Amino acid sequence: MKKILLNDLLRFNEEELWNIRVKMNVHDGTTNPLDDYKTNPDYINTGWFLFHKKRRYFRIGQIAICLLKIDYDRWLLTTIKRITKYLDVENGVGYEAEELEEYTQLYGRVVIKYHNTAMRMVRKFEYVMNDYEVIEILPVAYDGDDFPGYDNVRLSYYQLETIIKRQRSTWIAALQNQKAVYLITDKATGKLYVGSATAQDKMLLQRWSDYVANGHGGNTELKSIVKEKGFDYVKKNFQYSILENYNARMDDDYIKKRERWWKYTLCTKQWGYNDNY
């Protein structure tokens, strides 16, 4: 079966190809653009897309295709823009650009397969276009990984915030009718907090939404952290995971017993952020 290539969708003609470059966004050793995209897709198409540390890769009037690495050989088309202006940017080179609206329906939905063997992350499109194979067109714009199962939940504050604020469907469906015993980890100190979500708390989704809203969810020790170190400390350092999950029919008293068991087991009153058993 003949491969479907990216330009089969974009349909740039031979006269246009010489004026098109591709910007491939990958982990820079410090920050993963995929994490930024899950939180704020627009930032990838501005901050990552239109900034280079060393040299000027685009000319005024040139078309720039933006790809974001999802995993080993899979890339997501996030935008296509035409460069309109050079910008003075501290410690690098910047641009202004206008998005090509005729391709809007493809942004965040087209997944291509490409094995990049070069060190350069900016390439002439005509040199690589025959290697950009379209392997999937998503029904809606990519908004992050699907729910991985209750045993595999480990979220930063920003990941949790994104799930809740963008109402990512598989996550919302998995969390909204579940009771649970959960764990919050302060990655800066190693201290732990064990909590529970019951019918009284309106299930796990609501409980975790409370943490997104204010950082402490009404818990005494966590309130002290926010007051002392600020909400930004929570956003930077807190991690959320599930110890045990139960369906909505499970008795709340049993879940509270399991919460106490985990508090004793992990010593979260002596060495963590729980103020009681």
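^ that was protein a. below is b, sequence first then the tokens
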Amino acid sequence: MYVTQIVVVFLIIFPLFFAVVSSLRPLHDIYKYVSPVTWQTFWPTHFTLEAYVNLFVKRNFGKVLYNTFFVAMVTVGFGIWFGSMAAFAFAKFRFRGQHALFVLVLLTFMIPFEVIAIPLYGLVNQLGWIDTYYGLIVPAVANGLVIFLYRQFFLDLPDALIESARVDGGSWWKIYASVIMPLCRPVTVSAGLMLFISQWESFMWPLITTRSKDYKVIQVALSDFTTEFATIWNELYAGSIIAVIIPVLLLLPLQRYFIQGVTGTGIKE
């Protein structure tokens, strides 16, 4: 079992290790020592930070990171807000067409995004949101999976808790903000991480809705290193490492809450 685990870890880590090593090589050395395989294949003979310097000096990668962070964090904030409110309504209120509407919510995260990309683009274009932050953020705010996770969690909250808060004179807004949301930290972390990673890894939608460099996000920026005549491998590897390490640094300290949120909501009905 340990041998199997070591092999699996090696298969996962090795591509990242090779990317890190390659990002520290000069461009002409990237594949110079691939064949035959020697120690130089896995360790640079000349260390250089040229690729990382070029990213931020020549490629304006700082603006790209800002755009990606801004889009992801705003989506997380509004996504959690609207998703939790919708889930609270589905879990604790009764209204006509409730179940049919919830089925539609479930269908939203079962349908591949490619199916709705063209009509969604037409709608965003009519609103004048092409090449704006609105076009990148608003379509991702309403997330059916986030609503589902919150609803499953809210179903397990005792109705007596809400009724006692109502007896004490609490409004629905106060109950939602002061009683309900503080209790659902694990599912909030899970939903926030899912929204963040979804936006961080988004490529197709930012590619078709942005035209200028002012709104370019990290996954689209990585495609710029492959041109018609050549690929700038060391800068591509450097950008990829940055694109990978930031979500990892965010996920590691929050993984306990993430696991609790997913395992504690997905099987309750």
